[in-house]
Amino acid sequence: MTADKIKNALDKPAWWHSSLVEKGKDKVFIAFAFVAALWGIAALAGLLVYVFSDSLGWVDWQFITSRPSRFAEKAGVWPVLLGSFYLILLVGIMVLPLGVFAAIYLEEYARDGKLKRFIETNIANLAGVPSIVYGLLGLGLFVGLFGLPIGCLLVASMTLMLRVLPIVIVSSQEAIRSVPDSQRFAALGMGMTRWQMISSVVLPEAFPGILTGLILALANAMGETAPLIMVGVAHSIFSPPRGLLSAFGALPLQIFAWSDYPQNEFQHGVVPAAIVVLLTTLILLNGTAVYLRHRFSVKKR
Amino acid sequence: MGIDRRRIVISDPPHKLEKRVRILFFSAAVLSVVVTVGIVAVLLVDSVVFFKNVSLWDFMMGSEWAPTIKPYRYGVLPILSGTVTFTLTTALIALPVGLLTAVFLAEYAPPRLRAVLKPALEILAGIPTVVYGYFALVYVTPFLRNFFPDISTFNVLSASIVVAIMIIPTISSISEDAIRAVPDKLRYGAYGLGMTRFQTIRTVVLPSALSGITSSFILGISRVIGETMAVTIAAGRMPRIVNLLNLSDTFLKPIQTMTSAMVEVGLSDVSGDSPAYMSLYAVGFLLFLFTLALNLISQKIKKKFREKYQ
């Protein structure tokens, strides 16, 4: 096909190639492509400036340590911030072993064949399932079938764990794959068993990469709202979670609940403040991941 | 090189521990398959209960959606129409911009600019959709009112704009991979003929990368269909059949998508055995089937473009 295209171009008269018009088009196209590449970032930057300027005077110690309230001046995010924190802590505890074990199997044990391909296709598809469908899975499975209390911390964290599992598996696979085979052969040559080789050579070497993927997955989980709504997590809550089976609230869900309040102090005060708290947490998480990735790649060289 | 490390046979008699960890790792890998089976089973079981109460015909062909307000109606067409409208509008913005971004990153951007732009673009995808929904409602819609005075508070256009911003990285990163996979000798051939860069891109690079670009488009569209919070907050909750020929009716008025309809039922106090609750699963199943089909197609096409240059 490509050869045909080149032949087509050859058949064009000479002026077609060198005309000023074409050179002009080239310049216009570069400009378009440049604007396109910057457009999303510029739009987001603009929106962030708005949100930060609206949040000025709202994000303070009182806001972080208070409970949600119908009155804008008294409103705060403490219970939901803590709820989100416990949520991603639990997700992390559950997803790390499951994701890493699956990745070890796929990279170190499974031979290239139908089974491995089937599992990998399956993981890729799971990554594309809308998060709200995971909410239905959590509701149907953990609440409907296992009878766990609706909207409790355990149900929500298990649901989000399943949601981010594909991310952790794929990133752990990449980290394990990047460990050079020479190190594996050296370990095996010294008479190690496969598990000894994995646990003492491969995993320590791949650990920073695995951690990077985990943190990105947790940042993802922290921003999720739709699955939490489906499993019945409370929109507004006044106390931090007391246990695995207790009701709790999460920051994004509180933002969603507040965004329904028509008052200007909420639209241009409380909600931006809560968004700034959420984005700051996410930036801290993502920043850690970027730092780890950077240190990891420097060490490799 | 040359040795498949998984085929190395270790001559020591295998320890019990070795077998046990192997089984443990295998079960973890199989868990992902179990999750898929679980999703299908959960959706299927409750959908079947739903279709005992409401006929498949009424669901697929009904033109009214009112699962929680009497008289109850479970016609999926209004929310399907909302989903289609929202997806088309978003695609109209995101696909060209995403592709142009990919071309810029792969063909024009100097390496140092690229090193800054790529992670910056990734930030777009990392922002929670609930935040994008708020952006659309509170900042984008009032801004659009300058150009379209009769735009509703809840409307398709502003939700589409923010979701388009969100999925640009999805489209641009896969398209960029495809464009980079086009061998340089094709480009040099074109340059050697005296083509400009734009001519080269238009006649050689883009056609060669077409399958990868298509794959990124399909994946992006699948993301838009499943997107929930931005449409719930910014596009309104008005289930209606959209007239795609009347542009102001299409873009400037509220709609309801399948996902936002699910959120609305999820937020209401419907009991666990009512048809309204079961309708969640029927709509969820439809949504799952759509996105699964699109994801599978996208993967198939992507695999094709990978194999082409090996």
Automatic annotation (TrEMBL), chain A:
Belongs to the binding-protein-dependent transport system permease family. CysTW subfamily. This is Phosphate transport system permease protein PstA. Gene3D superfamilies: MetI-like. Keywords: Cell membrane, Membrane, Transmembrane, Transmembrane helix, Transport. It is a multi-pass membrane protein. It comes from Rarispira pelagica. The chain crosses the membrane at residues 28-52, 85-106, 118-137, 143-165, 209-231, 271-292. The keyword Plastid does not apply. It is found in: Cell membrane. Pfam families: BPD_transp_1 (PF00528). Residues 81-289 form the ABC transmembrane type-1 domain.
Automatic annotation (TrEMBL), chain B:
It is found in: Cell membrane. CDD domains: TM_PBP2 (cd06261). It is a multi-pass membrane protein. The chain crosses the membrane at residues 21-51, 84-108, 120-140, 152-171, 204-225, 276-297. Keywords: Cell membrane, Membrane, Phosphate transport, Transmembrane, Transmembrane helix, Transport. It comes from the Bacteria. Pfam families: BPD_transp_1 (PF00528). Residues 80-298 form the ABC transmembrane type-1 domain. Signal peptide: none annotated. Belongs to the binding-protein-dependent transport system permease family. CysTW subfamily. Part of the binding-protein-dependent transport system for phosphate; probably responsible for the translocation of the substrate across the membrane. This is Phosphate transport system permease protein. It comes from Rarispira pelagica. The lineage of its organism: Bacteria, Pseudomonadati, Spirochaetota, Spirochaetia, Winmispirales.
